[in-house]
């Protein structure tokens, strides 16, 4: 699965962490993302897959409040957010 996600998001830089939040309802994808980011060093990248319809707006609000950088967001039945910890 990790290799499939890397191919799907087509990043120049490999993500350091991959989170599978498919089939999780709000707020669980953001909770899982928050826990993962706390364990990461500045500059590291996390890619998150989610199917919750509110995920896009949730992750956009979350990056504003945490100071992280949303590098890429891919919409679709499975949404993918690529975030860098600053």
Describe the protein:
The chain has three helices and four strands, in the order αβαβαββ. With 86 residues, it is α+β, with helices and mostly antiparallel strands. The longest helix has 12 residues, at 55-66.
CATH class reads Alpha Beta
Instruction: State the distance separating the first and last CA atoms.
Output: 26 Å
Tally of alpha and pi helices = 3
Using only C-alpha atoms, the radius of gyration works out to 11 Å
CATH architecture: 2-Layer Sandwich
CATH superfamily: TusA-like domain
Poorly predicted tracts of residues: none
Number of domains: 1
Q: What do we call the CATH topology? A: Translation Initiation Factor IF3
Strand order of the largest sheet: 1-2-4-3
Structural class: alpha+beta
Strand content: 25-35%
Shape descriptor reads globular
Question: How confident is the prediction overall: mean pLDDT?
Answer: 88
Write the element-wise H/E pattern from the N-terminal end onward.
HEHEHEE
Structure keywords:
single chain; 3 helices; 36% helix; Translation Initiation Factor IF3; alpha+beta
List the helices and strands and how they pair.
Layout: H1 2-9, E1 17-21, H2 28-38, E2 45-50, H3 55-66, E3 69-74, E4 79-84
Parallel strand pairs: 1-2
Antiparallel strand pairs: 2-4, 3-4
Give a brief rundown of this model:
This protein has 86 residues and is of the alpha+beta class. The protein has three helices and four strands; from the N terminus they run H-E-H-E-H-E-E.
């Amino acid at each position: 699965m990790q290799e499939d996600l890397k191919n799907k998001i087509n990043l120049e830089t490999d993500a350091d962490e991959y989170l599978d939040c498919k089939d999780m309802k709000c707020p669980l994808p953001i909770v899982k993302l928050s826990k993962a980011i706390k364990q990461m060093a500045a500059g590291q990248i996390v890619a998150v897959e989610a199917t919750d319809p509110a995920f896009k707006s949730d992750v956009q609000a979350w990056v504003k409040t945490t100071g992280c950088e949303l590098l890429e967001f891919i919409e679709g039945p499975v949404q993918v957010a690529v975030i860098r910890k600053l």
